[in-house]
Amino acid sequence: PEFAMASSQFALLVACLLLGVHSLEAFVLPSSCASSLGLRQHGSLAASQPMHTVLSIQKQRSRARLEGTSALRMKAPMHDAIDKVVKENKIVLFMKGNQDFPQCGFSNTVCQILKACNAQFEDINVLENELLRQGIKEYSQWPTIPQLYIDGEFVGGCDIAIDMYQSGELVELVERVMAEAD
Q: What percent of the chain stands above pLDDT 90?
């Protein structure tokens, strides 16, 4: 039983690290599962558990990477190149693939939304360049792709584009920006 609990904790730790989750506060587990994993009922780790220490260390390392090294890793030329593309194009979508051949479901969704809005947009395939792929995440401080920029401003990713489209806000924004471009 003690080994099973340790392997369950390890499995949970690995899953969290792979998913980029550094805090289990948001996890809600049934009390039977939580207790078998050595967790409190609301899902946070008990302070005496070794896994808590590992997650704390991982969280500190992640924070240090974000605060310290991300600015160093993103070279000025990449930042400048991204900034130029964002500012010189009314609508830009940094995506996996291109608008004719999206290589990700989320990228495809945003493309379809923009096409439904009759948007003329520039697509940038982040899969062609690993520095660009990481650079755009650091530029926007947004961890996922696709990333939509309209009129030089970061709008968001797929979920935000969907919400804005469903509310009609994206159609209005695209129409206004496209009218200004003419």
A: 55
Question: What distance in Å separates the CA atoms of residue 118 and residue 62, rounded to the nearest whole number?
Answer: 40
Residue carrying the six token digits 């584009």? 161
Exposure of 18 in the CB half-sphere (CA atoms within 13 A): 6
Of 47, 21, 45, the closest CA to residue 35 belongs to 45
pTM (2 decimals)? 0.60
Phi and psi torsions of 147, nearest 5°: -130, 125
The structure tokens listed for 10 are 């390890």
Strands 122-125 and 147-150: unpaired
Dihedral over alpha carbons 30, 31, 37, 39 (to 10 degrees): 110
